[in-house]
Amino acid sequence: MFILKRQDVEISSIQHPKREQQIPILNYQGQTFRLLSVFSAKQGEEAKAYWRDLTDNRGKACVLLEEPDRYSIWGKIRLEQLASEVSNDGKIVPYTQACLLLLQAVYIDIEDLLGNRQAGSFQKDFLEVMRQWHFPGGDSPAAVNNLLTIDPLNSPQIPPWEEHHLITLLQELHRLGKSYFGNTNFSQGISDTLEDMPDAERSQFIEWLNQSPLGKLWR
After folding, report:
1. pTM for the model
2. Domain extents for the chain?
3. 64 — phi, psi (to 5°)?
4. Distance CA 216, CA 209 (A)
5. What Cα–Cα distance (Å) separates residue 156 from each residue in 72, 150, 152?
6. How far is CA 164 from the centre of its chain?
7. Which CATH class is domain 2-85?
8. Which of 116, 130, 133, 172 has the maximum number of C-beta atoms within 10 A of its C-beta?
9. Residue 36: what are its φ and ψ, rounded to 5°?
10. Chain-wide mean pLDDT for the chain?
11. How confident is the model at residue 67 (pLDDT cuts 50, 70, 90)?
12. What's the Rg (C-alpha) of the chain?
């Protein structure tokens, strides 16, 4: 639909209908949009390519918001739809579990191959990602340590993230992994990393992954 600047829109937040968190909402010319994905300032071309794919190839009504420090994509929604559409809890939990498994696999590889000092450095870098992108439940060293050590498939305390959080996590995790290992081999063969997940949930996650730019990063 449109590429907008921050001064063109009004951004507010409303209470999530199912969770104790706020949902960012963008208002533009009487239309309402919810946040779908966030890209850093350096990822402008990726953001525009994803936005064009959503609008041109998938027929979604989306706007691309261009700000000094980031790009964000917002999908049109009616507020009365929000309770059912903002988060499909039946899918978001296994998606979050899969992302945590990938995060832990990268961390373990760094610890095994590069040593404890680099593993400690990764924890600090990942904490900075959590803080920069305002992840719920990820703003302290103890919280990050918990994310790196819990059993995602059996823990009752899965973080209350939305889809845009997961997309950002996998983008940033790929960036960090590449900087630590010097290559992208760590992001290949993710089916093996997710082998403990139920087959249906693993396949569903990989299908979701391949429908976004993340499919080019994680294979």
Report:
1. 0.80
2. 2-85, 89-214
3. -110, 120
4. 9
5. 31, 10, 8
6. 4
7. alpha beta
8. 130
9. -110, -40
10. 90
11. very high
12. 17
Q: Which residues of 106-140 are buried (b: 16+ CB within 10 A; e: fewer)?
A: bbebbbeeeeeeebeebbeebbebbeebebbbbee
- Kindly report, residue by residue over 115-168, the tens digit of the pLDDT: 999 999 999 999 999 998 889 888 899 999 999 999 999 998 889 888 889 999
Per the structure block, which two tokens stand in for 160?
Answer: 């209350």
- Helices then strands, each counted (H, E), the chain: 8, 6
Among the listed residues 174, 172, 176, the one whose alpha carbon sits nearest the alpha carbon of residue 190? 174
CA gap 156, 152 in Å, rounded: 8
Please give the span between the terminal C-alpha atoms of the chain, in angstroms, as a whole number. 30
- Give percent helix, percent strand, percent coil of the chain, each to the nearest 5: 55, 20, 25
Please state, in angstroms and rounded to a whole number, the distance separating the CA atoms of residues 34 and 77.
7
Instruction: Give me the helix-helix angle, 89-114 and 199-210, nearest 10°.
Output: 90
Contact 65, 6 (CB under 8 A): yes
- Residue 168: partners with Cβ closer than 8 Å, 6 or more residues away: 37, 38, 129, 133
